[in-house]
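Q: Give me the 3D complex with iron/sulfur cluster.
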Amino acid sequence: MSKRQVAMVMDLNKCIGCQTCTVACKTLWTRNEGQKHMLWNTVNTQPGQGTPHNWEKMGGGFRNGEPQPGHRPGVGDFGKAWDFNYKEAFHGGEPGVRLAPLGGEPGQGPNHDEDVGGGTYPDNYFFYLPRLCNHCTHPACLEACPRKAIEKREEDGIVLINEDHCRGFRFCQEACPYKKIYFNEARGISQKCIFCFPRLDQGVANACARQCPGRLRFVGYLDDPDGPIHKLVHKYGVALPLHPEYGTEPNVYYVPPLSPSKHDADGKPTGEMQIPLDYLESLFGKKVHQVLALLIDEREKNRKGEKSELMDILIAREWIKNFGPFDKHPRSIENIKVVVK
Amino acid sequence: MSTNFDRRNFLKISAGASAGLAMHSFAAAGGAPARTLLGKPVPAYTGWKDVYRQQWTWDKVVRGTHITNCWYQAHCAWDVYVKDGLVFREEQAAEYEKVNDELPDYNPRGCNKGGCFSERMYDPTRVTHPLKRVGERGGNKWERVSWDAALTDIADTWLDVATKEGTDRVIWDIGPADDYAQNTAAFARISGLTQSVLLDMNTEIGDGHRGALETFGKISFESSADDYFYSDLILFWAGNPLYTQIPNAHFFTEAKYRGAKIISIAPDYNASAIKADLWIPAKPGTDAALALGVARLLIKDGKIKPDFIREQTDLVFLVRNDTQHFLTEADLKDGGKATVFYAYDEATRSVQPMPWKTLTLGELRPALEHTAHVRLKDGSEVAVSTVYSRMLLRIEDYTPEHVGRICGIEPWMVKRLAAEIGNAKRVRNTTQSTHSKLYHGNLATRAMALVFALTGQIGHKGAGFSGFPMLANEGVESFMIARNLKELDEHPPEIAAMFAQRMAAGDTLEQVINDMSNILMQPGALPFALPVNASGTLFWHIHAGISELSDHAADWNRGLKRSVKDHVSEALGKKWQPCVPKPGDDPRIMFSVMSNPLRRIRGNQKIVEVLLPKLAKYVVLDFRMNSSTRFADYVLPVSTWYERTNFKWVTPLSPYLTITNAATPALGESKSDFEAIFLLAKKIEERARARGIAVVRTPHGLEVNFSTLYQRMTFDGTYTEKDGEKVLKHIFEHGKLFGDVTWEQAKEKGFVRYTRISNDFVSAGNQTDIPKNDSIVALANHVQKKVPYPTTTRRIQFYLDHPLYHEYDEVLPRHKDAPTMGGNYPLLLSGGKARWSIHSTWRDSRLMMRMHRPEPYVVISVGDAAARGIKEMDWVSIRNDIGSFKARAAVSPTMQPGQTMIYNGWERHHFPKGGDMNSVSPSPINPVELAGGAGQHLRPFFIQGQGSMFDRETRVEIELAERAA
Amino acid sequence: MKCKRVSRIDLVLEGGQWSGGDSTQVEMIATPLPMQPTGYVIKSWAEKPYGTIKTLTVDAVHDGHALAVRLQWEVPPATTTDFPPAVAFALPVKATSPLVLMGMAEAPMHILRWQGGAQAGVRSVLAKGIGSSNHGPDVGQKALARQDGNRFSVVITRVLGSGAGAAPLKAGTTTKIGFAAWDGGNEERAGIKSFSVDWLDLVLAA
Ligand code: SF4
Ligand code: SF4
Ligand code: SF4
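A: Here is the predicted complex, encoded as structure tokens.
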């Protein structure tokens, strides 16, 4: 156990699926050799195949405390990062050449089934689920690694793969039930979300959190009673881990999505939610029922003009407060590049 | 002999393992000590963590933004991080001060596209040197030439064309480069001084908001995005704001937590519908019926606001039953004005003129429902009735059951929508340009506006009807008009006099501004050279042959009373609409500046077939290769938004002028479009002098002097090609729109809140204040300060008393079935703005394609796909009477059966040979959009009142072309 | 196991005389499952056979400056390309500790490990127990590998000498040698491998 644990809460009611988070992480961290296909932060339409495709069926994690064998997702599962024939298409001297992905049939990328979801028209439903490494309290990846190449930081519980130590054995990829570890073919090492530790170390919130236009990401220490994380996770209990049954005790939590009631033929609300509750329960566990009920009640309070601390937190009028102690402006950090002679 | 390994360097590890470090700029430990430039040193490599620490370092940061047309989203302040002379990433500035304690703040803004412009600007589409076509147009073969050689050739052709054929044969197609700042100043000056033609593309691209113009006399009006937080009911009606308003979208979800309800009205279960409390899946093109059904119920249930209606709308105006025209003073008195209208006053039980200098009614109590008899000036008596009475008759048939049948929804949904609107204190819709792209979309917008007007949900906090969101700067207009430096600061005397006179006569400032912008569409109307703003739609229809796609077609259920050709001749003949150059005068040079017409114009195959052969030169200025550069004779490289200082118009949704600073020098030989235009002017002047060319008479009777072009363009060297920033500073300071904030401060900070609405051609319509500590409420000047609207009746106008509207029975809003554009095919092809690109600007970015789909696709409903044996990822052929194209199939349960969808922005070069997404769009002209005429608010002026182009609801059939592997 | 002295190793590598029909067939067995360092590895390999490389054919020569060891083996058809083929030999640095324990803190072993694939190359590793191997000293290690279908032939060379934690090698002395091999096509990596149970003598001709 680390001394303290940082955590992230994402309010799915506010996620608009814009992928600014994905892009933010991509441009900051994964543009180096061997990282083309890596999206440490992903956002997928649920229900759907997710990233890597069908990851929920890939095993790993723990059952009754016992590690479970898992599948190792490959580049194809994550979605190939195509290259394109730009040169030929624009300067090749042949008219009408199509700009197309190289390598034949493109297959499906990491977000191919965006905005598809479940149900049949017009009883559809879907929502967006952003994901990153959960920096678990009981990290399956760390516990699987025979080289002890994965560390859980003492000061804040961030789970990091030691890239000097990693030999690319990829047991972590198999063991992580969330399939959030990528393999760098060029360097022969596993890589994953680093929870932006260089930023957090200097009091700046994670890129994916600070750059989220939907303002749905909260960051902070779980044990900070004044921070939004503690209130959402513990005080109100509205933030739930994804697939708690995987047994790794994630430190990324979700406020589950509300959806409107269905209607009968006369237009009377039936009380049955558009997103099937058993589906939500399969993702967030049994607590999801009481969380949704509480959110509905609190929203109703606000509608009537009564105060609701929970709604105030989720509305996040002052955005910077979403980040607890990590509220420094990145520009205020003098991370001027070092010139080494 | 043995080796002693102790002497060797143990830190060096074997070859295979060290490769990973090579890319990071670490010196081996033990090398020279690190030297820092500034701030605290990052340690030399001691372990893998430092690689990451090093990655988050930079040499410098400047504030920047993306001067693209992201429109409802425009703009967001970013920090642009530079390392090793290149922009390596961007992150939102996120320093918007809170507006007040109640409203959520504006932080952090931004979207996925802006978040990776640093990737886009260096990707393989980037153009860095002037390119000249080798061989045939479209052959994809280029040679590098110098700017000087390119500009000399272009200037010589220009002079040939201007002297031999006419000054107006040179056309500027300006897209998002039309920043209403630096570039616009350059375009306007070169257009005015050479009488070359600027195509107004706003209605052509499908953002004309025709129905708003018809009803409110203007299109530009919108409240701020934080004002949604005050709403009780938010209608996502015909739009998908989760795609189109990414930085603003949090205000919707947060308003919902505050207690607001959201209703989505859209055929498909889109990304916005998922946030709604109720989704009404009306069929495409049936919004008018739904709105009229709601209006009928609101009236029936007594949920209307009679006082608002009496004061703010023309519903109380009297119309003669014999002629169907408004009853005016001219009917009643000799020398009476045709612009004074009447209502039946319940207080005095008499027919009384409606006040026109103000909306204030005083003692008047105009009747809503009334029929009366009045004696005309010739002594005859005629029956008159109110517009309201006529409206009641009009909407009588729109019962929930009938509406349900038209819209394909349950009648209870109509009732529920009416009840939600009727019971909500504050209702606001979200802006959308869907209706602008539907043949009868104007009717839908008018019907929706009726719902808002009946319930008085306009012009109050949290309540409002959204038009076209735009907020620009007055200063640029002085560059359009000024003949000398003095006129940059104050209007030319002729124009100042016109303003003074008109306002003294009781016209509003807004009306005069609109009239002035209408003058810019009539070359030669004033005796001095003004920029020539021309209708893009008519240009493409007439000069690029787009009309040919529909001229000979069957009626397509348009109910035409006459041929469209006949309508166009009438409109041109009566000067209702402009076409410059006039039909038959072929355009000879076209410049596309970041506008990509070969991608955007519906039926664009005609540009290739009809327009390009007429052009002696087709010059494309852009920072990237695109559908249009493919057909260019010259491609001139333009610098990107991180390589120059600039700002652009924004919107009241986020009322912050946002400034981008040059973070790095422009790549290669690229130059800003501003600079390129000035250099072209310089070259034209130089060549004119060398060739002895000076004054040339324009087809509209003006004189332009090519031998002094650059001199006058630059105000004798005061604003040269190097002075883009000086122009910006002038524009910034001219209108005093930003309180005490200086240009230098604004530039440094990257954004500044407007303190008032700019009274320019494109923003004056907002008619409201910008409170420092509260949200912005569009149209508040009309509703709260009783300033008349710029319509013919000076009210929110539902009765369009124009011959074309009489001819097509559209004097009052109604539902009309969509025409079968393209032929009698079973599927409707609709469209929408994509999440993955702003128009085409990011559409072929590797990163964006990798994160979604790398090839164009059409979304097809599960049933329609199954019926055609089509599966996910199959190549399908989409065809109708006018063309076809191929795309991948995306089969989705979110799509309404019968509806198919292709999202905006795919380039021609994305499609397999034989056609692109525009190839099936004939986009016929809707005759009512040709309206114009003196005294009418229906006439062309800046960004509005011109014909639209339509692509939604094009009829197609889809077939399997090739099974996915 | 004999290590013949030749005049020049490069001549041998270019197709000259190896042991002259005197190759050693080293019997290999799978590493015991309970000794795998993590619960995950144990659990996930409980049902899967590994250690598919049952025999290594080994030859060794030296020329007074350098040692060359040729390792040859055969694998069943691959089920994955995720992991490279690999082979290693270990030499004790000080005393011999049981090969199965991968050395001990006070008695490390020095491993030269070759692997194919994207990061192909030979690596010098110092092991002080299971799961605690680290960069070993640079002993001028090089490798030459050939794959022929399912058959591999890899030559690993290093210079003779001693010091800095390297396993000492000196002409005319006898030391120990052990082997490990990974069938990458069977997802073998880390402790999932076959090994030569115990040390063999390595007799370097004078
Ligand atoms: S940036 Fe925020 S709103 Fe957008 S997809 Fe990511 S989590 Fe959702
Ligand atoms: S989410 Fe997966 S990768 Fe992250 S710590 Fe947990 S088990 Fe490891
Ligand atoms: S926390 Fe940082 S590293 Fe992790 S997903 Fe977010 S941006 Fe990427």
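A quick observation: The longest strand of chain B covers residues 884-892.
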